[in-house]
Amino acid sequence: MTDITKNRVIDWDKQLRKERDLKENLGDDWTASQVKELTGSFRRLSEKDNIKVGKGILEDCEEFYLSLDTIARNAYINICKNRSSAHFSIKRGDEKNDNDPALKEFIMWDAKLQVFKKNNGYNNISNINDDD
Q1: 117: domain range?
Q2: pLDDT digits over 97-116, tens only?
Q3: Which has the higher per-residue pLDDT, 7 or 46?
Q4: Among 1, 45, 56, 112, which is 20 to 30 Å from 65 by CA?
Q5: What is the DSSP secondary structure assignment for residue 75, as one 8-state letter?
């Protein structure tokens, strides 16, 4: 049986351009790590990327992802996917509304993400990278 996740090809240059453009649209309030959580690009990392940890190459969310075990990685991916889906469903412009169900869903998933990160040592990773 072929494992489709190992054979799927993703154009990471295109993904990185998409992240750059998204960061420009979101503004300075969003860090590169937060944008990567929104796009899910941290999922491209594998065990062989552990050699990059602590060297300032990876964003906080990427180092956090690599620090998790398989079950926690899957939970992190699921939370980020749901949060991202809600974020991109929020109405923009004239249709913007504080009662938008997608906005409420985004806030809920964002809170779940913050709790997950707190419970799984994200602050330890973030503090290490702040020392650089």
Answers
A1: 33-130
A2: 778 888 899 999 999 999 99
A3: 46
A4: 1
A5: H
Contact 73, 65 (CB under 8 A): yes
Buried b (16+ CB within 10 A) or exposed e, 4-16: eeeeeeeeeeeee
CA distance 42 to 58: 9
Burial annotation 71-109 (CB, 10 A radius, 16+ → b, else e): ebbeebeebbebbbebbeebeeeeeeeeebeebebbeeb
pTM score, whole prediction: 0.80
What amino acid occupies position 68?
L
Residue 2: the pLDDT is 47
What SS3 state is found at 51? helix
Q: What angle do CA 37, 72, 48 make, to 5 degrees?
A: 75
Whether residue 10 lies inside any domain: the answer is no
